[in-house]
Each structure stands twice: as C-alpha cells, then as structure tokens.
Design goal:
Blueprint (H helix, E strand, L loop, with lengths): L11 E4 L1 H15 L7 E8 L2 E8 L8 E6 L12 H12 L2 E6 L16 H16 L5 E6 L1 H12 L3 E7 L18 E6 L7 H7 L7 E6 L10 H11 L6
Parallel strand pairs: 1-9, 4-5, 4-6, 6-7, 7-8, 8-9
Antiparallel strand pairs: 2-3, 3-5
Helix pairs in contact: 1-6, 2-6
C-alpha cells in the first residue's frame, strides 16, 4: 500500500528493519557514553493541581536545549511511562537535551480530570515553563506520541520558545492540523505503515499541505504502538532527530 502512495523519496522515507538495524549497530557504540541520562521524580504545579513528572538529572548548563515529552491519550491507558515515549526520551538525552515528561491531569498521580484536550494544553504550558526556568535562553522542543503528538505539534507551532517538534503516530484522521500549513518550524513525523488508529493514508493526504521544513518517515511493518519495532524506532529517531535541532 505504501509503495502505491509514493512514499519512497528522501523526505518521505520507507526504511526496512534490516536497514535500520545496520545503522544502529554502527551508531550505538559511539553513543554509549551519553546514553541513559537518569531521571528523578518531581512534581509540577499546574492549573488543575499537582502533576507528577520525571525530570532529567543532567546538569542543565551542559545541555543544548530541553525536550518536553507528551504521552498518549489518558482515557486509553496513555501515561508518561509509555515505551514509545521512553524510547524517544532516551534519544533526546543522547542528543544533549534536558528532558521532562509528566502525566496529564487525572492520569496516574496527577490531580484533576481529563479535559478533552483543552486543559491538557495548559499542562503542556506548565511543563514548558518549567523547562524554560531550568534552561533560560536555550531552545525547547516538543515530542509527542499519538494524543501527545497532536498537542506537541499544535502547541509547538504557536509557542515562541519551541523551535522544533516531533510527532510519533500523529492522529491526523481525527483532528484538524491546519495550523501546520503555516508553521515554518522543523517538524519530524514518524508513523507506522500498519497503524490501526491513525490512518496512514490520511497522513499521506495531509502531509503535502504542511509547511516546510518537514520530514515524514515510515516504519512499514509497525502498528500504532510500534509493537515489536521499538529498536527500529529508536534507530530512526537517532538518525533523524538532528533535523529539528538548532
């Protein structure tokens, strides 16, 4: 199906698992010293109350910027411990970013109640404020998975402190993404070719309308959760994340 949709050029790349594993073997060894930045439990004070979070223990002065990571839909089991989000966090740390992830209101130990994506935007703002205080003057990035991808792209497009965004499993078929048609910040999208919740064909139809700079990459055999394909996702993120970094 993806070959019929024409996803074979440089920007809309279709990688095989074998290609990605080959890249991974040669790269991981060079990254060992910077991998696995530790995290500590912390709390943020949001408009709906206390938000539980995990904050990098790295020295902010040694980091090139900050990455706020946003989890999948709270009503369908999404939380900050998502394996996809953890994978993305690890790669962000490798790239020298100071990371923060948290549970949206009403999720896990965070106070409040789910607010249909509206109050959750305030939660993202709280996280960005925290990173800005930790990293004054340094660029900030938003990285999200599924529901979190929508928020990362929507808020990142308008927020003055955010300079680049990553969307993993972006749900273009259930909400509008018109704001990306005028957003000139770097956007990296990674999607599973067998995504059962966020239709690959919908993303293919919408992506040409998104403003440059942008990249769309596919993991041909991956589903929405990148089940059994996290190593390939990790390798692809390691390879492509520098596209959004300043």
């Amino acid at each position: 199906m993806l070959e019929q949709l024409g996803l074979v050029n440089t920007e809309d790349s279709l990688y095989s698992a074998a290609q990605l594993r080959e890249f991974s073997v040669s790269t991981i060894q060079r990254q060992v010293s910077s991998m696995r930045h530790n995290e500590i439990k912390t709390e943020l004070q949001g408009r709906a109350g206390r938000m539980e979070a995990l904050l990098a223990t790295a020295n902010p002065d040694d980091c090139r910027g900050g990455a706020l990571l946003l989890h999948p839909h709270p009503l369908y089991g999404g939380n900050m411990h998502s394996k996809v989000l953890y994978t993305a966090r690890r790669i962000c740390a490798e790239q020298g970013l100071f990371t923060l992830r948290f549970n949206f209101r009403g999720t896990g130990g965070s106070e409040g109640h789910y607010d249909d994506g509206q109050g959750e935007q305030d939660d993202v703002g709280t996280g960005l404020d925290h990173l800005r205080d930790k990293l004054p003057g340094k660029p900030l990035y938003l990285v999200g998975f599924s529901f979190g991808a929508w928020l990362a792209l929507k808020i990142g497009a308008a927020h003055p402190d955010v300079v680049g965004m990553v969307g993993l499993g972006t749900p273009v078929d259930w909400t509008r993404f018109a704001f990306l048609t005028t957003c000139t910040k770097p956007k990296l999208l990674i999607h599973g070719g067998r995504d059962q919740y966020c239709d690959p064909e919908s993303l293919t139809r919408n992506f040409p309308d998104f403003a440059e700079p942008k990249r769309l990459h596919w993991l041909a055999e991956a589903d929405h959760f990148f089940l059994d394909h996290l190593p390939e996702l990790e390798t692809l993120l390691r390879r492509e994340l520098p596209f959004i970094l300043v």
